[in-house]
Design a protein that fits this description.
The protein has 22 helices and 29 strands. The chain has 703 residues and is α/β, with parallel strands linked by helices. Among the domains are: 2-263, Spore Coat Polysaccharide Biosynthesis Protein SpsA, Chain A (Alpha-Beta Complex), CATH 3.90.550.10; 267-335, no CATH class. β25 (613-614) and β26 (620-622) form a beta hairpin. 51% of the residues are buried.
Length: 703
């Protein structure tokens, strides 16, 4: 089975819409897909099955005919990532050919020795005669931050249990992993079709259901099998994430043949024939006094390069890229630069919104969005990108510090770690009290105007500290929160509404963030305590809605306080689904699904947006719409696998971002669809960052 996918965004401008990565020849000679057909010939004793997008149908047919190969081509009208593609192939193979072994390989990798590849895969097929799901791990040639790693465990005869996966570690960790015997993840899998289906049924049932439905409703025309529309309902997820990171049947076979994922221009240079100066050029190219350069010139273009090192120059008829090879991973940002219009699919939405975040929002809010005098983050910017600072709240300082620290953690190019740390230190110097808690409001210049500490603000302080990695301060803050504890369970908030769900929700978010990076049991206990309170008291038994305000016994209030916010249904759903998956507790995802249904009661079909509020009976109470519920709907839809809803939410988010200056947003929409003209509050960048991060994570990945 050949997975003919891969957007190849890091190989822009050569790879783009209409010519995806498998059909490029980045190292010269034949296309990557044509070379994959040779590898298939070296493996298959029976048929070759190719799974690709319907938009690539002509490319696939042309390459198969040129190779003289007989193959079945399974076409996806909506690419959903490697997991649904493999599941559909397993369903088809099991139905059509019985008890067969599938050897699954990407079409967009470079493996010069097809025969060596074939021998290894055929040997792996022997191990796959059991229930094992075998993957190949390439012995790493060098530490690389762009690779995924497999950590082998115990084994014998060249087959080892998988002890873990590590995705794109930093350079120092990559070096340690290699020293400990970790292998590059080649993305090649060998298993019986029925074994694969068993794993999907157990670990990714939504994928299995959509794959079976897609094959059942498929149309067949000659050698082409076009999957039914129901296939598009599959969650967009990679096979590694859906199955391999969870299964107890995963094993790895270490291999030594030359291999590259040619995922970016630096990898292309490493895989290409090179001259004495370490350079590789193709086309009408003239170089002088260069070292370690990669130059590609399309037919009809002449390119001259002189006096540089470690640079890529890619010249296409309508676009030219010049980049330092050490920045090759950031090229994908340019592939996504496009108008924020209606998106046809999640992949295009992810590319555009991610580009907006990286090239507009983060640069704007890290410069104009910081007060040079105080060093504090600004409260708001106008639609012209000008500062608006009526006050300086702790929640803003903590949220913005979290955003920029998270951007640094996510290895987005930019000075984001320094931005986060400078501003947070300026805030801490002005707002921290001797008891470990922080004042709620400062003046624009940084003077305390409201010294009272609030639970809500400190949930975000803890979240920021998690991204900053400051466990000492975080434990001090967590201990100081005991003053908010309520005898009936949970926490009291300061102010006129002491018993509310919202502050608990963000405290749960912070606890889960800390749980992921700190082994201390305090965070797990805190998360479990809040979830227990939410499941037992916050969620109404009759409607399944998450309520907002309560009395001292955690009984819901009536009257004006009886409100259901669709945005919070989605936000809690996202968190509870995450908690349930971490704990292996079905209550988490089941409650998340109910909350999601309630939230969807508040989606205005005409505008495609989630409204502000519903009544306890789930009728619309406030038909206006803010930005943040759209981001929370996007996160929850992605997490729970509602692809069509996620696409609608992504388009709704984009509509709020259509402003005269890129990087700010429209915060509130009237019931008639017009927007309120007001400055963009900094608090929404936190919502946008997490939604775009989730969209980038769940959007179709390279095979």
């Amino acid at each position: 089975m050949i997975l003919c996918g891969g957007a190849g965004e890091r190989l822009w401008p050569a790879s783009r819409s209409g010519r995806s990565k498998p059909f490029l020849s980045p190292t010269g000679g034949r296309s990557l897909f044509c070379a994959a057909l040779d590898r298939a010939r070296a493996v298959a004793s029976g048929e070759v099955l190719i799974v690709g997008g319907a938009s690539d149908r002509a490319w696939i047919a042309r390459e198969i005919e040129a190779a003289g190969l007989v193959a079945t081509v399974m076409l996806e009208s909506s690419p959903r990532g490697t997991a649904p593609a493999i599941a559909a192939a397993a369903v088809w193979a099991r139905r059509e050919r019985g008890d067969v072994v599938l050897a699954v390989m990407p079409a967009d990798h470079d493996v010069p020795d097809a025969q060596a590849f074939g021998r290894v895969v055929c040997a792996a097929a022997v191990a796959a005669q059991t229930t094992a799901v075998v993957t190949l791990g390439v012995r790493a040639a060098r530490p690389s931050e762009s690779m995924g790693y497999i950590v082998p465990g115990a084994g014998r005869d060249g087959v080892y249990r998988i002890a873990g996966f590590v995705e794109k570690p930093d350079a120092s960790r990559a070096a340690r992993l290699i020293g400990d015997g970790a292998l590059w993840n080649a993305g090649v899998f060998v298993a019986r079709a029925d074994s694969l289906l068993d794993e999907f049924d157990r670990w990714a049932p939504a994928v299995a259901v959509a794959a079976r439905a897609g094959v059942e409703a498929a149309t067949v025309s000659g050698a082409n099998v076009t999957l039914g529309a129901s296939f598009a309902a599959a969650p967009s997820v990679a096979f590694d994430r859906a199955v391999m990171e969870k299964t107890a049947h995963g094993v790895v076979v270490p291999v030594d043949f030359a291999w590259s994922d040619v995922g970016a221009w630096d990898a292309v240079l490493a895989a290409s024939p090179r001259d004495a100066a370490g350079s590789s050029v193709i086309g009408d190219v003239h170089v002088r006094n260069v070292r370690d350069v990669l130059v590609r010139a399309a037919p009809g273009l002449r390119v001259a390069v002189t006096g540089v090192e470690r640079v890529a120059v890619i010249a296409e008829a309508d676009a030219v890229l010049v980049c330092g090879l050490d920045s090759a991973q950031s090229v994908r940002e340019f592939a996504g630069v496009r108008p924020l219009a209606k998106f046809a699919d999640l992949a295009s939405g992810a590319a555009a919104l991610d580009s907006w975040l990286s090239t507009a929002a983060l640069p704007l809010w890290s410069t104009v969005g910081v007060d040079e005098g105080s060093g504090l983050f600004r409260e708001a910017l106008t639609w012209k990108g000008e500062p608006e600072d009526p006050r300086c709240r702790t929640r803003v300082q903590a949220r913005q510090a979290f955003v920029f620290a998270a951007a640094a953690q996510d290895r987005r190019p930019g000075p984001w770690d320094a931005v986060a740390r400078r501003a947070f230190e300026a805030f801490r110097a002005r707002a921290a009290g001797p008891d470990g808690l922080f004042a709620t409001v400062l003046s624009p210049g940084g003077r305390i105007t409201d010294p009272e500490a609030r639970l809500y603000e400190h949930a975000f302080v803890l979240l920021a500290l998690a991204a900053l990695g400051d466990d000492v301060q975080a434990r001090r803050v967590c201990g100081a929160l005991d003053r908010f504890r309520h005898p009936a369970g949970g926490f009291r908030e300061a102010g006129a509404a002491p018993f509310q769900a919202n502050a608990h929700m963000h405290l749960l978010e912070a606890a889960l963030a800390w749980e992921a990076v700190d082994p201390s049991p305090v965070w797990r206990r805190l998360a479990d305590e809040i979830v227990t309170l939410a499941l037992g008291r916050f969620v109404a038994n009759d409607t399944g809605a998450l309520l907002e305000f309560f009395d001292a016994d955690w009984s819901p209030l009536s009257g004006d306080a009886a409100v259901v916010e669709p945005g919070h249904q989605f936000e809690w759903a996202w968190l509870l689904a995450d908690w349930g998956r971490r704990r292996g507790d079905a209550r988490g995802e089941a409650t998340a699904a109910r909350l999601y249904e309630v939230g969807n009661r508040g989606v205005d079909a005409g505008r495609g947006v989630a409204v502000n509020a519903l009544t306890p009976g789930l009728d619309v109470r406030d038909p206006a719409a803010r930005l943040w519920p759209q981001t929370e709907r996007l996160k929850a839809a992605l997490s729970l696998g509602f692809v069509a809803d996620a696409l609608e939410a992504a388009n709704a988010v984009a509509e709020f971002l259509d402003t005269p200056v890129r990087g700010v947003w429209r915060e509130r929409m009237y019931a008639d669809g017009a927007f309120v003209e007001e400055p963009s509050p900094a608090t929404s960048l936190y919502h946008l960052y997490l939604a775009i991060r989730e969209l980038r994570r769940f959007a179709p990945e390279a095979c």
